[in-house]
Model the fold of this input.
Amino acid sequence: MTAPSGPEAGRAHGPSGLQTPAGTVGPVRVVGTGLLGASVGLALRALGVDVVLHDPSRVTVLLARDLGAGRLPEPSDPPPALVVVAAPPDVTGDVVAAELAAYPDAVVTDVASVKGAVLAALTAAGADLTRYVGSHPMAGSERSGPTAARPDLFVGRPWVVVGTEASSPEAVLAVRTLVTDLGATPVMLDARVHDEAVAVVSHLPQVASSLVAARLRDADPAALDLAGQGLRDVTRIAAGDPALWTSILAANARAVLPALRATRDDLDGLVQALEQVVEATGPHAVPGGALGTLAAAVAAGNAGVARIPGKHGGARRAYDVVTVLVPDQPGELARLLGDVGAAGINLEELSLEHAPRQPVGLASIAVLPGLGTTLEAELTGRGWTVAG
Ligand SMILES: NC(=O)c1ccc[n+]([C@@H]2O[C@H](COP(=O)([O-])OP(=O)(O)OC[C@H]3O[C@@H](n4cnc5c(N)ncnc54)[C@H](O)[C@@H]3O)[C@@H](O)[C@H]2O)c1
Done:
């Protein structure tokens, strides 16, 4: 597969399906053709950019090629203009250093989830930092490998770009252009700020999810039958790859530790409060402060979750939520959404929950405050059962 030439070169249907001119200049060499690398390749190929693939696993690189993420290198190839390293974080520094040395005119970026450790490895190796600009797309999946790759993985997502004082403006521009070509929004941060941010918004949530999910290993199957959306929400990312997450947590240990220690302190407080409740001889004997500690923990969570940006990055709003029973049959959800539209009410958020072993789902429809009662009446009038 070769890149188109002539007037159509670099102009194609991009990851978002729009006719987009590619600003990224090829050939682009993708090193590590798993989920992230193959997704970059698929998106660039959709823009008509020439992508050359490399991975130490022969099967992985051939699979990425067969999925359309790029082609294998040829001896007659020109050197790459841009190298994207999408290898595990613990080897990323070494791989970036090797790519900078092998291609002295190329800009090199990486997509590792941790930036400080990569930069430290490159500095220690004496690498040419003028051509290196780290990055981290805030997009991904709990699945790994090229079969999980998608060309639209980055569309609409923030993508952190981590230049250093040594980075040349041309290198920063090349990486920013890659990011926007792939439909993402560049966010410029320095490595330390990035690492501290992802420790709180990504790495601690992964640990918390894994720890909660681990409690389910010995749970009674009858208990698991009671599982609702809350458990699914909290444990979804617990399906992440252990090898990748070990590498991420180890590489960002310095930033993850304070967040983990603070969480441990909160947990210790909760354990102590619950012990006091259990040891009390009656409701009036519960020591002062114990119940307050429980309430304070939940209230602190309320305050934290309210700070997560809502729709379009704006402030999170309190919506009215109408929950509707949806028969588990083809076309029923589409019919429900059609009826919401026919009521002239905009749907702000939608979540679906499957009642275990029952042929119905629960669709929770969030609408602007004040519209819930109207929507409930409209849907009931159209024959839907509203659960609350
Ligand atoms: N998975 C996510 O959600 C996500 C999100 C953002 C960033 N990242 C980062 O992207 C990078 C890749 O993650 P992924 O999810 O694509 O993992 P993946 O396991 O799907 O792919 C990693 C690939 O790197 C290859 N590899 C291993 N050692 C290598 C080496 N020395 N040189 C070159 N390639 C090597 C592997 O063979 C594999 O194909 C990681 O640094 C990760 O931190 C992942």
